[in-house]
Amino acid sequence: MALSDDDKKDIQEYLHKYLRVKVIALFGLIGLGTIVAILTAGWNAAEKAAEAIAENPSRIADELSKIPEFSDVIAMKATGVPVGSIMPFGGEITTDVRNKLHELGWLPCTGEPVSRNEFKELFSVIGTAWGAPGSLSYNLPDLRGRFIRGVDGNSGQDLESTKRVSSNKGGNSGNMVGSYQNESTRMPTNSWDISDGSHTHTTNGKPWIAGASKEGSFPSGTEHPLSTPSITGGSHGHSINGGDAETRPKNVYVNWLIRFKGPTVQSN
């Protein structure tokens, strides 16, 4: 399948800009004569090179993706996913998988600090929103075991947005991206009914007959109903047992990734 016109244009631009320092990497892919033409004729020759590349796009894509200056054209720009995007990944992240994800421009959201210089594209987008352990590094988002929530802005959906704290030292707090909010349980909307169940209270002493003496004697020929002294339970409480370790919806596990290389959308 041939490259689209947009792909050709992108490759033209990159060839024109970078081939002077990457000539050796393209020997065998396009002829030496084409390279010389690019070096001497500039843009017009680059256009011809792009046409030649279109004859065998899969091979050229494999080779160009190995060159840092071309990787975002082949592996990044084609997808249109901007730097700083966060997405779920349904596989386990082994060392080998992590390396391959890195080649494609993705890092796991584990909160680790990374170099501002090495990952400068991502830093230009997220800055120190998720933390800054030092002047030369910044933290990736740490989404392990956590739910993602949209920034409240001024929507009023998060009633405690101003109480949010930073994910790591030097990160954003309050109503800003990257801030953290600990678990909380709201009082239920519906009231709870608590039943004591059937039970008795034991008392010491004996029942007595109204009108009788302490010894139990009473005048003959009269009625003396049997009475029981009233008993109160006094001040006391009832414990409610049960509950789980946390309040949560039904959920499944994924690994979260953040894009560090590709198209950028940061403000100028």
UniProtKB/TrEMBL annotation:
Residues 152-246 are annotated as: Disordered. It comes from the Bacteria. Residues 154-193 have a biased composition (Polar residues). Residues 84-148 form the Phage tail collar domain. Pfam families: Collar. The chain crosses the membrane at residues 21-43. The keyword Hydrolase does not apply. Keywords: Membrane, Transmembrane, Transmembrane helix. The keyword Transmembrane applies. InterPro entries: Phage_tail_collar_dom, Phage_tail_collar_dom_sf. This is Microcystin-dependent protein. It comes from Neptunomonas qingdaonensis.
